[in-house]
Each structure stands twice: as C-alpha cells, then as structure tokens.
Fold each of these.
Amino acid sequence: MVLVVNMHVSIKISKENYERLCFLSGKLREELHKPISINDAISFLYKRRKLSDLAGGWKMSDRETKSFIEDVRKGWRGWKIKSA
C-alpha cells in the first residue's frame, strides 16, 4: 500500500498500518468533532509522548541525582491537600 502524504512525498506502509491510521483518524474525528486527515493522525502519534520516552535522555551525576531527589522529597513534604 502506498500512502501519498503530499504532492512531493509518498511512503509505503502495510495495509494493517494504513487501517490503524484510518481507525485513529476516525477516533480523533469523534473526539475533536472536526475532520482529521491521516496526516493529522500521524502528527498526533508523533506528538503523543510518555514520560518513560525520556528515560536515559537526561545525563546527570550521582551527586546531581541525589540532590534532585532530595529537592523533590522536600517539595512533597511542603505540599498540603486542600479539600473543598
């Protein structure tokens, strides 16, 4: 299956992935209440990132790690739950 992305570029994807993109486009169209192209669906997939995607991306020494963890713990200790 060949998917034409724009007038200048085409990419080859499997029928299964094409169907997945069409399904995602439909789901996004339902959620956002507007037309969604397959290109929009690909952009959505690219932008949707998880925190775990960043694992290993931040280089710091053991000392910096310890300081960071201490600061986070200190911040959580100062956090108070406010009820309505």
Amino acid sequence: MLPANLLGIVLALTSAFSWGSGDFAGGYATRRSNQYHVLALSSFSGLLIVIVAAVLWRETFPSVQGILWAMVAGVSGGLGIAALYRGLSVGPAASVAPIAGVVGAALPVVFVGFTEGMPAITKLVGFGLAFAGIWLVSAAASDAKSGATRPGLLLAGLAGIGFAGFFICLGQVDPGKIFTPVIVSRTMAMLTGLLFIKLNRLPFPALNSNPAALLAGVLDAIGNLFYILAKQYTRLDIAVVLASLYPAATVFLAGLILKEKVSRRQWLGVLICLVAIGLITI
C-alpha cells in the first residue's frame, strides 16, 4: 500500500487528468452551444452521477459547517468559470487563461503557508516550476502577440480568485465525506449556470442538446471527488498545485484526438510540469 502522502499525490494527479479531460470535452461542447448552456448541462450531469454514487455508498451529508463550505465552493467555482469565459471573450487567451490558472493555484499555497506553515524547500521549488508550467501550457501560441486588455486582466484575476476559493473551501469539508460535499457544490454551480442563462435571456437547454457537455460534467465531478480524496491524504497546497496541472491533460488530448498543433512553448510547459511533479513528490 502507498504511503499516505504519496497516495494523496497520485489522487491529485488523477484529479488533474479528470479535470483536464473535462475541460477538453467542455471546450468541444462550446463549439455547439453557448458557454452558459454548457456550464448548466455539465453541472447537471456531474450532480446526477454523484447523487447516484452517494446513494450506493449510503454516505450521509456533512455537518452544517461542511455544507456551508461546500456551498461557497460551488458558488466560487461557478463564478470563476463565468469570469473566465467572459475574460476569454474580451481578452487574449494567451494572457487570460494563464493568469487565471496561476492565481487559482497560488492563492491556496499562500493560504496554507499561513495556516499550516511553509513546506520543504524542494516542494516550494516544485510549486514555482508548476506555476511556470501552468502558464506555458495554458498560453495559446496563436495569441502570443496579442495585447491584454485591462478588462481581460481583471476578469482573469477574478476567475483565478474564484478557482482558489473553490479549492480552499472544498478542502475544508468534513474528513471522510466524499460524495455529499460534491453534491452540494455541484448544485450551487448548476444554479449559478442557470442564473447566468436567465440574466442573458437565453433559452434553457434541452438535456440531450449537447452530449459533450454532459460528458464534461461527469469528468469534472470525478475530478472533484479525487481532489477531495487527495486533500485527505496530503497537504492542501500540494493537492491544489498538482490538481491545477490539468491544462497539460487538455493540451495532450487536443493534440491526440483533434490533431491540434501543440506549440513548443506548450510542450516545454508540459516538461516543466513533469519536473515539478518530481520535486513535489520528493
């Protein structure tokens, strides 16, 4: 059996692959539907599969405090996604996506530094390399020369804060609870998506209108489950940084399945992420 810390690392990396796969499916889904439709549909499918799992495992809901943490996590994550979508529509992806990814991973590290103390120097170096890898992998080569607008940068920062809030709050739920906290957070994310649909005066999507969005929700929910498990076996900052390497999985799948061109900078980012994993694992 793997040592607890190493098991947490493996679970966090599994979460990253699930989230990256979900983002790949979600990106494919947005080619057919509005991004808010995709958010609502993916939240629904993810919620459904987690409810089924909770019933089969007969897991009870967490404490009131745990439910509140999960609710805030769901709202924060939903707002982060909405800000990211909006930021990508007004600013270059080469700036918006990396800023959101790095801010989302860095803030939990600062939070844990104050609450649990700083990790070993090798892990700090690994964190730094992970941030660099996330930036390089997330940056689209085609947008490399585009200038970032102030609204785009602001929305990217807000998206990163939303993602960081999701990581931190979901990491505060009761130990031993896996499925029910995700039920709460996914419910809040779905309601957030439906709210944006209402505010933008869009029609509500049919459940069978976009299968890729439903797949994205299932993969994203699985990523959430592995992240909660990872947090129970290792430090929050380690779980967050490793789970935040999900853009590498998205880029890999885009090149493998859609035959999209992966830039040298993105491959360099993937390599740096691998080195970071090694340092964090030591």
